[in-house]
Design a protein that fits this description.
This protein has about 160 residues and is of the alpha+beta class. It has a domain of about 110 residues: Umud Fragment, subunit A (Ribbon), CATH 2.10.109. It has four helices and eight strands, in the order αββββββββααα. A hairpin with a 7-residue loop joins strand 5 and strand 6.
Length: about 160
């Protein structure tokens, strides 16, 4: 068990906020790996809303995940990373550890309450079907040599 990850919940038990640089690409383009600093607020247990970004404990080696709520159920949530196409369903209330409060990019802090951020979230989530289709077509094209050549030509690669 990774003591750094294990200590996230323990740290938040003692402190209200945690700031750290994320690793992973599942929240691109909003959060950039090893570049953007996120500030998380300890989860107060009062429920999440659609579009909140929360850290939850999924267990296993990559135990803590920071993804966006895309559906709110009765006592559970469905999460999706901004750069993902597969939803993670039935995440229980007890698995929620923290909620994104803000992030800092190139020295500028962006609150989740900022109107520009809120517009970005709505547009980005509305475009999910288009992103999903694009990623599926790209993945299939990469498996077929002739299609891979066409795909590379379209995107200016040789």
């Amino acid at each position: 068990m990774n003591t750094v990850q294990t200590s996230i919940r323990a740290y938040l038990d003692e402190h209200e906020y945690l700031a750290y640089r994320i690793s992973g690409v599942s929240m691109l383009p909003m959060l950039r790996q090893e570049k953007d600093l996120v500030t998380l607020r300890r989860y107060d247990g009062k429920g999440l809303k659609k579009y909140d970004v929360a850290m939850y404990d999924r267990g296993g080696p990559r135990r803590y995940v920071l993804h966006r709520v895309v559906e709110v159920g009765d006592g559970s949530y469905t999460f999706l990373g901004d750069n993902c196409i597969t939803k993670e369903r039935n995440i229980s209330e007890s698995a929620i550890v923290a909620v994104l409060d803000s992030f800092t990019r190139e020295g500028k802090q962006i609150s989740v309450n900022d109107p520009k951020y809120r517009i970005y979230v709505r547009v980005h989530c509305a475009l999910f079907p288009v992103r999903r289709l694009y990623k599926k077509v790209r993945a299939r094209a990469a498996r077929v040599p002739a299609l891979r050549k066409v795909w590379n030509l379209i995107h200016g690669r040789r």
